[in-house]
Amino acid sequence: MAxxxxxxxxxxxxxxxxxxxxRPARGPCRLRSVFETSTPTDDSDEDATLLFATLSDxxxxxFKNLRGKGRLSEADIDATAREIRIALLEADVALPVVKEFVxxxxxxxxxxxxxxxxxxxxxxxxxxxxxxxxxLGGETRRLRYAKTGPTVIMLAGLQGAGxxxxxxxxxxxxxxxxxxxxxxxxxxxxxxxxxQLQVNGEKVGVPVFAPExxxxxxxxxxxxxxxxxxxxxxxxxxVIVDTAGRLGVDAEMMAQAAGIRDAVQPDEVxxxxxxxxxxxxxxxxxxFLDGVGYDGVVLxxxxxxxxxxxxxxxxxxxxxxxxxxxxxxxxxxFDVFHPDRMASRILDMGDVLTLIEQAExxxxxxxxxxxxxxxxxxxFTLDDFLAQMQQLKKLGSMxxxxxxxxxxxQIRDQIExxxxxxxxxxxxxxxSMTPAERANPKLIDGSRRARIAKGSGRSVSDVNGLVDRFFxxxxxxxxxxxxxxxxxxxxxxxxxGPGGGKRATAKQKAKKGKGKGARKSGNPAKAAQEAAAAxxxxxxxxxxxxxxxxxxxxxxAAENLQLPKDFSKFLK
Length: 572
What we know:
Helices cover about 50% and strands about 10% of the residues.
């Protein structure tokens, strides 16, 4: 059977500025397949900045003023409500949303749940968190799939909102869910729109259904209808239709989008909106809702918007949930929108669940288990340290990882200014060491440090700093892994916690019970038998290295978080 051909790359010949290219006419439709199955990569090293940074800073500062108060007066509640109102307005949240939100918080803050709480300030934070979740949409809205035939998803929105790129991101996400998506190019007006979708489809390894060059511009409605039939023939279970946009809302665009909708009867119509356009996003969203109608919203370019008011307002104004969010240039910078997790980020409680999900995808569970055992056993070496850093690089930049941890707003400036190339420099220094030096860093004396510095192209002080920081980091990680944890934190997920984990409890009991019963047997055979039994018992109680299945209250942990002493120096 002959394989379908892929699109040929355009010629790189220069064209004089005074000569206009003739846009190729488009005729009958044809499937253009791409057989690249490798994980997509992107040259961009920039990661999304913390969403809603301004709002997060203002709210965190407001709640600090309430700490230590055993009882909240009416004046305290009014002052807090006023600060919340200002913070929301500065974040470009729509005025009706601000009024309703502040009224709900004040009403609950004056109720019994705060007046009778042991920690009123913490209860107010809890109320604000719950109300934020509510205006963000409450529960996470999932895609609806067709019971029979391919599921058709139609994307609509203004030109420049990022529909074409988002179509490929959505296709990759669906592919990771086990689906076989088909991208459809129905934007036939914008020059190179079809080619852009084909390039993006090649990046994510998803075939693109596009018009074959021929006579005539082509009819988007016919292309959409033909794509559904092609998907049935080729057994694609999801069809993603990329429609045309305009610089502004007009009747022609609405009529074309409505025609495609009526022709293919999509299971989901998603409105794609640029989060950076602020209040204009609400006007556009309402216009599309009236003209075309849609089931959910996708927010793009969240990494470029430090205020994020559109995300907080759009669900309240339109009544349609935010279903997905795109926060970067990479094809993997796309995920389901979780209102509860977004609220936690806004209140500087972190997003530990998302971090765990990403770690499960990027990390090898057996490797993580071995690293945990080495940490608790005290034999964590520079080789292990290097392996862990290479695993972390799969999650993204170090700053993006740290931003998902609770309380990182305390050191946000250092996180933002962290030089990501420092990871590569550390790797160069470690690789310049001998296997014996990596296994036992205590061997690294002055002459060895000079040799390592010369081999890695770094200074001796850089080598000294790495070795010193390694010992300090190992000590801190061993404390966390063995159940000591950070004050106010549950410890490393899956490895117990301060006073709460099984290992920590057992350790405390062992300390209290040190005496005759805790001594090892003088008989070598019996001592070996006891050691084997203890090892088997520890293996049975071995938890999941990612912490899944543990009942950890991350919200409470975030509220009580105190960073370890000198933690910030690890970012220098």
